[in-house]
Amino acid sequence: MSDKESITLVVFSGELDKALAAFNIAIGAASMGMEVSMFFTFWGLNIVKRNEGAIKSRGIMRKMLNRMNRGGARRLPLSKFHMLGLGKWMMGRLMQDINFPPLEEMMALAKESGVKFIACTTTIGMMGISKEAFIPEVDSFAGVATYLAEAKESKVNLFI
Amino acid sequence: MKADATLDCIGLYCPMPIFHTANKLKELEVGQVLEVLADDEGIKEDMPAWCRVTGNELLGIEEEAGQYKAYVKKSK
User: Fold this and answer.
1) What are the extents of the domains in chain A?
2) CA-to-CA distance for A28 and B16, rounded, in angstroms?
3) A22 three-class SS
4) How far B22 CA lies from chain A's nearest CA (Å)?
C-alpha cells in the first residue's frame, strides 16, 4: 500500500448512465491525486466486455444468458428512458452537445490516469464467461477479499 | 493576473476541467501559475476543492460574463 489516498468503486450496474457516473468519479479522483480501483461485478461486468465477437460459454442456460446479456461499452442501455435505444441515442446527442466524452473515451482517460480495473471472478464463473470476453484494460480478476483489502484502506468506497 | 501558462476548458464540463488541470500542472515548475479558462460554473467550487486536496494554491477566480479564469499556483 502506498501512502496516497485511495478510493474504491464497486460497479454493479451495467447501464450507460451509471457507468458514466462511475467513470466521472474515477477520473475526478485520479485527477485529485488519489489511487482508484474499480471493481466490476454482476451486470457491471458488461462495461468491461469487448464490443466485438461472441461470448463463448457452455450449457444452454449460460449460452442464452450471454446472448441476452452480451454487454460491451457500446451496447449498454440507459437505466431510464432507454426506449429501445431511442433514449440512448438522444442522450448521446446531448452529451455531444456539451462536449462530454462518450463512455469508451472516459474509460480510456481513466486508464491513462492509472485507474485499476478489477473483474469479479465469481460472476464470471457463474455466468460462464471466458476471460477473452473482456477488454485488455482489465488489470486483474479477483474476489471480495481483494476488494475489502483495498476498501479497508480507502476513505471513499462507493457502490454503483 | 499574470500566468505562466493557460489552459482552455471553455465548453467542457466536470470532470474534464480538473482532469486537464491536473495533467497540465505536471508540465509546470513549482511556483509557476496556471490560468484555467472555463465556462461551467461548477469550477467555482471544484477548483478550490481540487487545490485543497492536491495541495496547490488557488490565487483567485475571476468571473466575467459567464466565463471564469482560475489561477492555480503549483505548490509541490
Assistant:
1) 6-159
2) 8
3) helix
4) 5
ipTM of the complex: 0.86
Measure the CA–CA gap between B11 and B40, rounded to whole angstroms: 7
pLDDT of residue A4: 87
Question: Which residues lie below 8 Å from residue A138, measured CB to CB, with a gap of 6+?
Answer: A40, A48, A117, A118, A119
CATH 3.40.1260.10 fits A6-159, yes or no: yes
Pairwise CB contact (< 8 Å): B50 & A100? no
Looking at residue B46, which CATH number applies to its domain? 3.30.110.40
Indicate the pLDDT class of residue B1, thresholds 50, 70 and 90. confident
Alpha carbon distance B70, A134 (integer Å)? 41
pLDDT single digits (tens) A1-50: 467 899 999 999 999 999 999 999 999 999 999 999 999 999 999 999 99
B14 part of the active site: yes
